[in-house]
Amino acid sequence: YEAKRTPGLSVQAYRNAGHQGHERLLKIEHKLGDAVLDGKIVPFFQPMVDSQTLQVAGVECLARWQDEDMGTIYPDEFIPLAEATGLIVDLGYQILDKALEVGSRLNANEGVEVYFSVNISPIQLFEEAFVGNVEQLIKHHQFPVHLLKLEVTESLFMGGDIQARETLMRLRKLGVQIALDDFGTGYAALAVLRDACLDVLKIDKSFVSAMTPGNLDQILVKQIVEMAHAMNLKVVAEGVETQEHQDFLQSIGCDYSQGYLWSRPVAEATFCGWLRDKMGAER
Ligand code: C2E
Ligand code: MG
Ligand code: MG
Ligand code: MG
């Protein structure tokens, strides 16, 4: 079970991560290859709202696997496994392809000008052809490149590799924006901020959803926003669950707000309907 995997990538870590039962895990592992081949894993969509105007400014694409007998399977259960097996490369292109397709359609047909944010695993970024393939997909869908954001995590920079930075620079040359996801939970956070070329900082939801008046999480969030702005980065707060969170984020000038307060990640049709209603109401 462990031995056949790509060396250096941790199936063991995945197994240890507290997943529900060995049986479910084995099933997921058994089915993942076919699910990717058959295109069963698709993006769901969660809006990001401009904290000041409260209008929809962007959307994050989050992978969901709808299985006939297991129901919805969430990324925490299959992304680490997809990374450990290399399937993440194919899966990642599928998610990006679908995101750009939906984004292009909304943009062309309904004049929707919102960011599409797609999560990228380090393994994808280190693939030789990645930047070229991203460029092709953007062209193929005629997606407005300035509306594409790729979300990476600090783990990308572990080991002080300069290749990651170069790849990000090439992506930015295309006009793609780079967001650092889950900020505050990783390692060497400040060195990454200093050296990586970034456009957006996403504050990890563990800080945001824990904010209460005057507590340490609130103080940290406020300081992160200030620091990010001083570095010319836009800031997204993820995990915004209550109106109190939102009011605070607005008061400190946080740029974007994402969380269950606005919407859970929903399927394509639901999202497009929701957006249509919302935009109709705003016009
Ligand atoms: P992430 O990129 O940090 O995405 C945010 C996660 O927080 C999502 O979990 C989202 O559903 C959840 N979330 C959003 N608002 C709230 C809230 O108000 N409260 C709480 N408690 N949670 C909220 P999800 O969809 O389960 O995804 C988990 C992680 O899996 C993502 O974290 C991302 O790292 C990874 N992931 C998801 N889709 C992809 C993908 O297509 N490719 C790659 N490489 N990774 C993905
Ligand atoms: Mg993300
Ligand atoms: Mg995040
Ligand atoms: Mg996360």
Characterization of this structure:
It is a single chain. The protein has 283 residues and is of the alpha/beta class. Helices cover 48% and strands 19% of the residues. It contains twelve helices and nine strands. It has helices at residues 11-16, 22-37, 75-85, 88-110, 122-125, 130-141, 162-174, 189-195, 205-208, 216-230, 243-251, 268-282; strands at residues 41-50, 56-67, 71-73, 115-119, 148-152, 177-183, 200-203, 234-238, 256-258. The chain has an eight-stranded mixed beta barrel with strand order 1-2-4-5-6-7-8-9, surrounded by four helices. Helix 8 (189-195) links the parallel strand 6 and strand 7 (200-203). Helix 4 (88-110) runs parallel beside helix 6. The radius of gyration is 19 Å and the shape is globular. The model is unreliable at 1-9 (pLDDT under 50). Bound molecules: ligand C2E and magnesium ion (3 copies). Ligand C2E is lined by residues 46, 62-63, 74-76, 79, 92, 95, 119-121, 151, 181-182, 205, 209, 238-241, 258-260, 265. It comes from Thiosulfativibrio zosterae. Residues 25-279 form the EAL domain. This is Two-component system response regulator.
Approximate helicity band = 40-55%
Rounded average pLDDT: 91
Strand arrangement within the widest β-sheet reads: 1-2-4-5-6-7-8-9
- Rg, Cα atoms, Å: 19 Å
- The percent range for strand residues is 15-25%
Structural class: alpha/beta
- Tell how many strands the DSSP assignment holds: 9
Shape: globular
Spans where pLDDT lies below 50 across 5 or more residues: 1-9
Main sheet, how many strands, which sense, barrel?
8 strands, mixed, barrel
Instruction: Output the number of helix runs.
Output: 12
**Which molecules other than protein and nucleic acid are bound?**
ligand C2E, magnesium ion
H and E string:
HHEEEHHEHHEHEHEHHEHEH
Distance between the termini: 56 Å
Protein name: Two-component system response regulator
Domain EAL: 25-279
Organism: Thiosulfativibrio zosterae
